[in-house]
Amino acid sequence: MRLLTIAGTRPEAIKLAPLVIEAARRPELLHRVVATGQHGRLFHGTLAAFGVEADADMGLPTAGQSIEGLAALVRAATAIEIDRARPDLLIVQGDTTSAWAAAMAAHAAGLPIAHVEAGLRSGDPLLPWPEERNRIEIDRAATLLFAPTPAALANLAAEPEVGGVAILTGNTGIDALLAMRASLPLPPPPPGGPRLVLVTAHRRENIGAGLANICDAVIRLAARGDVEIVVPVHPNPSVRAQVTTRLGQVAGVTLVPPLDYPQMVAMMARATLLLSDSGGLQEEAPALGLPLLVLRENSERPEAIAAGNACIVGTDADRIVAAASRLLDDPAAHAAMARPALTFGRGDAAARILDAIALWHAPALAISAPVPHGGGLKGRM
């Protein structure tokens, strides 16, 4: 069976690496991974951290492109790749512009689509934009939909426009996190030192006023004097300019370049508190028992909030500072959010996904029944 995966961003690389590794163990699968070039070396470096690599790179001129321009480039290049590789199935992950454009190209070509991390919904078509649009349209076009949680599966079941087969698999991001965490030597931090607060912010909807408010909150928290605040600066030029201007000379705040995945996991493992608008970190923080304040007004991952590991605080500086101060000053409040929870998976999602694909493609040859704790939707395999 010939599988083609198209991806372009660092988060996609993290979540697809377990799938690439697992597919390589199965001789009946020919899995071709093609990068769009959206995150360039960062994408390839992330795969390399897991000991895998892409088979090809489209080399698209993605820097400075509008969303529409990037989508047009990826869609055209994917159509060429589909014609060249003649795959049986296209795999896309998540809700990036690369994933959406590749899925639309496959849909136009009549090629079945598998959507890894299907069914996420914020409930607001504009927050986040264009990710909410992307994930909805990919799900409507997909033949196989791999839902990471029961809530995501329920979202798919509630949408009559979704006509494919949906299966509960867990999230491959947790596969990646658990594998990387187990591989890292992590000595305990020295006692008595400042506590580490890790801050990431890059969402398109936060650039401008929202990011300014987040920076103001960081400045106020740094003034406490008992925390070490580390901010990996996203490569987006608009984000980088705003963050470096506001925080570049603030005592107690360290700006660092984008961290590779092992560095990020190590940083989270020793952090006391995480402030972030990232979707992927909403999945990873609960698994590590790291309290998370979500710098957004809503979330397509409500499981982290329901589990008690995360709290939505938006981008109001007063609200951010109040919530962070409570967790830093009240050990009981911190402990309540610091209980590790495998809310988004158990570390076996990649195997479950490929078992399901095998059963879909050739039921008589399937290695094992897919996702014993999952289920099918609107179709049988």
Strand content: 5-15%
Number of helices: 15
Radius of gyration, whole Å: 20 Å
Give the strand order, joined by hyphens, for the main sheet: 3-2-1-4-5-6-7
CATH architecture of the largest domain: 3-Layer(aba) Sandwich
The major beta sheet can be summarized as: 7 strands, parallel
Q: CATH superfamily name of the largest domain?
A: Glycogen Phosphorylase B
Mean pLDDT reading: 92
Question: How would you describe what is shown here?
Answer:
- The chain is of the alpha/beta class.
- It folds into two domains: 2-171 and 345-365, 3-Layer(aba) Sandwich (Rossmann fold); 189-337, Rossmann fold, CATH 3.40.50.2000.
- Helices cover 44% and strands 15% of the residues.
- It is built from 15 helices and 13 strands.
- It has helices at 10-24, 40-49, 67-85, 97-108, 131-141, 150-157, 172-183, 209-222, 237-247, 261-270, 280-288, 302-306, 317-329, 331-337, 349-361; strands at 2-7, 30-35, 56-57, 89-93, 113-116, 144-147, 165-168, 195-200, 227-232, 253-256, 273-276, 292-294, 310-312.
- A seven-stranded parallel sheet has the order 3-2-1-4-5-6-7, sandwiched between helices.
- The protein is globular, with a radius of gyration of 20 Å.
- The two termini are 16 Å apart.
- Mean pLDDT is 92; it is low at 364-381.
Write the layout of secondary structure elements.
Layout (H helix, E strand, L loop, with lengths): L1 E6 L2 H15 L5 E6 L4 H10 L6 E2 L9 H19 L3 E5 L3 H12 L4 E4 L14 H11 L2 E4 L2 H8 L7 E4 L3 H12 L11 E6 L8 H14 L4 E6 L4 H11 L5 E4 L4 H10 L2 E4 L3 H9 L3 E3 L7 H5 L3 E3 L4 H13 L1 H7 L11 H13 L20
Parallel strand pairs: 1-2, 1-4, 2-3, 4-5, 5-6, 6-7, 8-9, 8-11, 9-10, 11-12, 12-13
